[in-house]
Amino acid sequence: MIRLRNLVLVLAVAFSLGAAAPALAQEENPGEGPAVVLEDEAEEESDEAWTFRYLVPTLMVGSAVVVLAVLVGYGIRIRGRYRVAP
Questions:
Q1: Under 8 Å CB-to-CB from 27, ≥6 apart: which residues?
Q2: Domain extents for the chain?
Q3: Along the chain (86 residues), what's the average pLDDT of each consecutive run of 10 residues?
Q4: Which one of 11, 29, 41, 55 is CB 3.0 to 4.6 Å from 51, fit for a cystine?
């Protein structure tokens, strides 16, 4: 249990550092400098590919089902292994 807690803590810290890295990499004064902002007048309509519309949600749902199945299987194995007799 302690190892699992440590793993979750390490993953949370790694995720937070990964999410904060782009913000830390920015300059302190982005308004000062030679950069010119160009605005596009005409926006192009992008038709999403079928892979993005169908395959990605299918894979996300499938991976969620697999994770839930692994958690349930793990719980069943642990309960079956450590039964306390009344």
A1: 33
A2: 49-86
A3: 78 71 58 68 70 87 96 83 70
A4: 55
Distance CA 43, CA 30 (A): 26
What are the φ/ψ torsions at residue 85 (nearest 5 degrees)? Answer: -80, 135
3-state secondary structure at position 33? coil
How many Å separate Cα 40 from the centre of its chain?
31
Q: How high is the pLDDT of residue 64? A: 96
pLDDT for the residue numbered 12: 79
The model scores a pTM over 0.90: no
Count the alpha carbons within 13 Å of 53 in the hemisphere toward its beta carbon: 5
